[in-house]
Structures are given as C-alpha cells and as structure tokens.
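Limitations

Structures in this collection are predictions, not experimental determinations, and the ligand pose is part of the prediction. Treat each record accordingly. The example that follows, with alpha-L-arabinofuranose as the small molecule, is included so readers can see exactly what is and is not provided: the inputs are given verbatim, and the output is the predicted complex.
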Amino acid sequence: MMKAKLILDRDFAIGEIDPRLYGSFIEHLGRAVYGGIYEPGHPTADENGFRRDVIDMVRRLRVPVVRYPGGNFVSGFNWEDSVGPREGRPKRLDLAWFTTETNEVGLHEFARWAREAQSEVMYAVNLGTRGPDAARNIVEYANHPGGSFYSDMRIRNGEKDPLGIRLWCLGNEMDGPWQMGHKTAQEYGRVACEAGKMMKWVDPTIELVACGSSAYDMLTFGGWEYGMLEECYDQIDYVSLHRYYGNRTNRTPDFLARSMDLDDFISTVVSICDAVRGKKHAKKRVHLSFDEWNVWYHSNEQDQEIWKRDKWNRALPLLEDVYNFEDALLVGAMLITFLRHADRVKIACMAQLVNVIAPIMTRNGGGVWAQTIYWPLMHASHFGRGTALRPVVTGPAYDCTDYERVPYVDAAAVAHEDGGLTIFAINRSMDEDALLEGDLRGFGGLKVREHIVLHHDDVKAVNTEEAPENVAPRSGGGAKIEGGRLIAPLGSLSWNVIRLEKA
Ligand code: AHR
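Predicted complex:
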C-alpha cells in the first residue's frame, strides 16, 4: 500500500469559498428544458409544467446559481421572444444547435423554476447578434422596480416585483468561430465595455462576467484575455473560463490527470487578469467564473447522426453523455482543483444540469436518475462550504502522456465555522490502495464523523434508470483519528469525503 502525507493548518487559509462554486447551467439545448425541467403532462409536473421529481434532484444538489439561457444558443436569441403571452411567442430556428426554439419556456417561467429549485438565475445576454441596447433593456425588464417601458412590461406580464437577477454574463464564448457574431478580442472588449457600462447604469448592484476563452487550447488564448480585458477591465467583475475533457484515447491514467491542465489554465488566467490590473494601475481585482466545466465527449458521434436525420426538430436528444465511474473521478479531481483556487475562482457552473452533459437524466414520461458525476458535485456542494485551506500533499506520482509527476493522491480541505473539517481526496491509482496520514495542525481534538467513498470495480460502470445506484457513494471508508493524526485508507480509484468534527 502506498503512503501519502497531508499537512493542514487552520491558519493556512486560501480564502472563503463562494457558494456559487457549486453552480450549474441550463441552456435551451436538447432536452435540458423541454423534457428535462419542463414536461407538462408528466405525472410529477406541477401547475407550471415543471417536473417535481427533477426539482427534488436539483434541490438535493443544493445548486446556488444556474446560468441561463445559453451557451451558444444565447448568441442568436432575442430575449423579447421569451416574454409575454405564450401564444404570441415566435418559433425560431436556433442556428447554434440546429433545432427549433418554441419559446414556451421563457424568462418568467425559468425564474419561477429557479425559485422552486432554490437557485438564483445567472443570466447571459446576447452579444453575438445583438448588442448593448438589448442588454440594457433586459436588465431594466428584469430588475427595475417599475415606472419605465420595460419594467412596466414585466409587471403587465405578471411579475410585479423585480426578478432581482444579480449575475450577468456578457455574451458567450465570443472568441469561438462557431459562435453567431464571433468577434476579435478588441471588438468584443469594446462591446462588453459599452454593454456592461449601460447595464450597470440601469442597476449598479449587478455583477458582470466577461467572456474569456472557450478553451485553454484555443489558438487565441491569452491574447484574447489580455486584449479584451484592456478594453473592459473597469466595467466587469469576472472573466469566464470554459473547459471540457474526454477520454478519447481510453487511457484512464491520462484522463484522470486532466485536472493538471485545469490547474494550469486557472493559474494562467489569474496571471493575465493581474497583468492587466498592473498595466492599468487598477485597485480592483477581477475574479474568475468557471461557468462551463465537465466531461463531454461520449455523445459527440451520436449528435452527428441525430443532425443527419433530424435537423430543426424541437428538443432533440443532443449532448446526452452517459457518464461512467472514471468521469466521476475526474469531476471530483476538478472540484478539488477549484477548491484549491477558491481565492480567485468564485463561480463555477457544471455544464449542464439536466439531460445535456448533465448529472441528472430523465426519460420523457418516465423516471429521473443521478448520473455518476452527480455524487462528487453533491458532496462538494454540501460539505465544501467554509474556508478553503492550503493542503500540503506529498506522496508517489506517475508520468503519463501529457504530464509528469501526477500525484496519485490529491486533496482539498475545507474548514467549517463549527470547528469541523472536510477533506476531499482522490486516489488515481488503478491498482494500489493508499494510506493517507494527516497532520492536522491547530485543529484540536477532532473525530471522524463520516468517511464517504465512491468506487466501482469497473471504471466504465454507469447508472441507468433501471440501475440508478450502480455507481453510488457509501459510508464506512475507515478513516480514523489516532494520536491526533488522521489515518485514512483510500482505495485504488476512489473519491473520498472525510468529514471530521470536534471530539
Ligand atoms: O455546454 C455546451 C456548449 O459548450 C455551450 O453551449 C457552449 O458555450 C460551449 O461550447
């Protein structure tokens, strides 16, 4: 059995964890909305047509914020289409996903759903085919109390009180040539600056996220961040990052090492934000919003087939990745990485929430179940709130195709207000268990409350409607405190949540 050492000190804090680190995302794409959260006629549907069984699963995740309505979709979307009497809402071709958008679910319906799901809305404006004017109008519509053209329209449409949307994305992936209205960094930076300025004039309490690169490996990465920030640094609060991974070569050790890339990506964007801050002699620090992240590759070929036979239909079953156990391990490693950057990554949205590259799956007219990746996200969302601590982890490492010295054991730690502590740990080894020995300085007497483990002997194991708990966490992982030190067995290929409380 290999040994790994963990040192934690109560005083070595990274920073307060913003609960929005456990956000998610619903796009008008595939069966995320229609057939996902919304299915009138479903046995569990409420009076608004929203599936109660799905809302319950979302609530169990404790999702503080949900990004909406896209994604690529938003770059061709007219927000005005999605409000007012449903009969009058237009059907539009969605050029992002080659489907037809009926606008049956729009801003009011989604805001109502989010309230039910106990989440806040993070709203993306269209800076692709639209611009600053449409952007400031929707802020007025959503957040102004009344007595103006758009706020009165909202009131006439049934919402007397402002929707109170605090967090706004200035477009989506505007660096990507696949985007409607794709822009250069300077073009985007100027538009984001002007839109952001006017949006904050309408409501100075809002926060704004500017588009960073849509992936770390974009050829324009780096220059894009620097160039657009030079234009809009003063107006915005966060820069977005997006990143998806896949195990296309079917090499699990390589795949599980992808969180090294994530770590690198975050550090580099932090450096660029701070470089622009330096150049501008700005006091303000811009933080990061990792508002799209996940594993995404299983469904790629299937989607091509769907488009070959069925373009322009409504609610096509697109991006329906079925996640396996190794995907859950990487998601756990990604969450560990976010926690270790909690001083700068304030928002993160797993993309997405229901059916579309999602932790929650539904069958139209049928059941709802948790995919494998649901579990690490739920654990982090429940037990990863408080102060992130700087863990020192030492132990054996491996080399793989893209990385050297990948630690088998990786960990993050969160101190809680009540004196408790949670350690999230992963063992990446395919065949060797690890013993984690923890030196918990300054914590006084602690005892193990629970050691949760997620493991399956088959890395390709999945959950289905028929076997929803095939890959599911169990308690009883065997962590103990001995002579003030933590001794925790971490089985090969396992995700662990070690919850400690005051003795
Ligand atoms: O989440 C799926 C898509 O991935 C989003 O629409 C887009 O922003 C990204 O490319």
